[in-house]
């Protein structure tokens, strides 16, 4: 495969792709918001939220190694186009079920699982393509810009959802979601995404070669203890995030309305937007990015504690703002480190194994989140419950929804403690010094001089 590594890298390409993805993400967000409210209206429990999250995460994790091998073997642009097309067709199926009044909760689980498979193939192709179109010095900014897109979605979706539901109903909203996929696909069709030169060739003998690719990526990480340890830290963090994540809706709806849930989601978007703008403008520290990643995770965890303190919309709104403000810095800086340390031609495989390890614990968290809240902590934190006279009750109160709050409180405390422990581990803390860069600085200086306009950060996201 011919290398395109010497071609100038332009943020314009990234901007075009981002814009198409942004429109599609907003459409999907409208559908997701409406279906989440529909699920809670139909069931009134937290468990279906957790099961839907499980339906998204489990297939994605299982298919990641194959998706990474595919990203290194085939044209990454075509992989992204096919993935977006598949996701659009799944949305069309949901619309059909709605129009025929046949939609059931299990249909949502199934279509969510299928959508996650397409997303699993798109993700390594997209992330590994960023290294080919964004200069080394701008990788952290690009990561922050991706977060801005998600934040824009969270801010706009609640307002748009309320207006569109009144104007065209849920069926119309899902059709709008389907139409937005054409923006994502169209953007990919008009840009050029360079392919990396293959320095490490994947084998070409079918299924066995896929297994060899998985083994190669696993060994690559095992030989680098800093990266390997960082991955298991991410897995633990994702466990607690995913334990609480499906419960945001039940927590707010236990004392508030759909409008107040929208307020919390808007606070989430505002925090993510400001955090994304901060990291995309600043770019993060030149050195010691990993300590900054860990510190950002610890600070974001405080938001879970805040959200648990009182059953009024202000507390989960402020809590979500804190969580969302610091997580973009953590995600952007981490992604920049990985993109610099891992050679471009093997990023598909390595990034997929990274995702599989980091997300491997999420299905367990999704599986136990609902029952843990509904069957354990809700009864314990009810009036006369086992913990109704405990220090926890004095801190967050008792009654309706306080069992959900207990999950948030414990998650926040454990995450802060875990972050401090990992920060004390030198192999993770010093991995930037121990592992050499895969992208030479002198190469990037030439690229920057070739396109001086790219030195100006552009506030975009994914």
Write the layout of secondary structure elements.
Layout: H1 11-43, H2 47-73, H3 76-99, H4 105-133, H5 139-190, H6 207-222, H7 225-244, H8 248-253, H9 258-282, H10 289-308, H11 314-341, H12 347-359, H13 362-380, H14 391-396, H15 402-423, H16 426-429, H17 431-434, H18 441-450
Helix pairs in contact: 1-4, 1-5, 2-4, 2-6, 2-12, 2-13, 3-4, 3-5, 4-12, 5-9, 5-11, 6-12, 7-12, 7-13, 7-15, 9-11, 10-11, 10-15, 13-15
From the structure above, extract its key features:
462 residues, mainly alpha, Growth Hormone, Chain: A, 77% helix, 0% strand
CATH domain fold name: Growth Hormone, Chain: A
Helix content: over 70%
| Radius of gyration, taken over Cα atoms and rounded to an integer in Å | 22 Å
Domain tally: 1
Q: What is the CATH architecture annotation?
A: Up-down Bundle
- Total DSSP E strands: 0
- Report the total helices: 18
Task: Report the β-strand fraction as a percent range.
Answer: under 5%
Kindly report how far apart the N and C termini lie: 28 Å
Spell the H/E element sequence. HHHHHHHHHHHHHHHHHH
**Gross morphology:** globular
What oligomeric state is this? single chain
Task: Tell me what the structure shows.
This protein is mainly α and 462 residues long. The protein has helices at 11-43, 47-73, 76-99, 105-133, 139-190, 207-222, 225-244, 248-253, 258-282, 289-308, 314-341, 347-359, 362-380, 391-396, 402-423, 426-429, 431-434, 441-450. The protein is built from 18 helices and no strands. The longest helix has 52 residues, at 139-190. The protein has a single domain, classed as MFS general substrate transporter like domains (Growth Hormone, Chain: A).
